[in-house]
Structure formats: C-alpha cells, structure tokens
Design a protein that fits this description.
The protein is mainly beta. It has one domain. The protein contains one helix and eight strands, in the order βββββαβββ. The longest helix is centred in the middle third of the chain and has 10 residues.
Length: 84
C-alpha cells in the first residue's frame, strides 16, 4: 500500500522478511513500513530522540539514501530520502 500526499508517495507499507520467532522455528509474518522524508538526517535524529534505535547498515553513510530503525517496541521501519 502506498500513501500519497498531493500525488507524491510519502509512505509505503509492504510485507517484510519472515523471521524465526521462538525456539521452535516458525514463520512469523510482519509488516515493513517505509517513510519518505525531506531531510534524512533530521528525521533519523528525531526518531532516535523518541526512542528508536538504528539498525546497522552500510558503512558508507554519506551516500545512504535510507536508514532502518526499530521503534521502542521493536517494530522495524525505514526512512528514505524523498526525491523530487
């Protein structure tokens, strides 16, 4: 599902990878939410200030166009640099 504002995509919701969820392996479906933001660094800082933790990613952060985070309850989401 894509959320649009004035015709531009601002968020996307799709199914994420399947993880093992317990000692006895079973598939646990989950959602992965993507948000497009005008300033990736500011949005990341705000998310972390509200309790999110950044998920380790590529070492070359200067060219990164998105960042993965987990909210305080552990839900994974990404912030992506909005393009014109």
């Amino acid at each position: 599902m894509v959320l649009r504002s004035a015709g531009a995509a601002v968020a996307r919701l799709n199914s994420g990878p399947v993880e093992a969820g317990a000692e006895q392996s079973y598939d646990r479906p989950r959602w992965l939410v993507h948000f497009k933001v005008p300033d990736l660094d500011v949005a990341r800082e705000r998310a972390v200030a509200q309790g999110a933790t950044q998920v380790p990613g590529p070492a070359d952060a200067d060219r990164r166009s998105q960042v993965a985070l987990r909210d305080p309850q552990g839900a994974l989401f990404t912030l992506g640099r909005a393009t014109e």
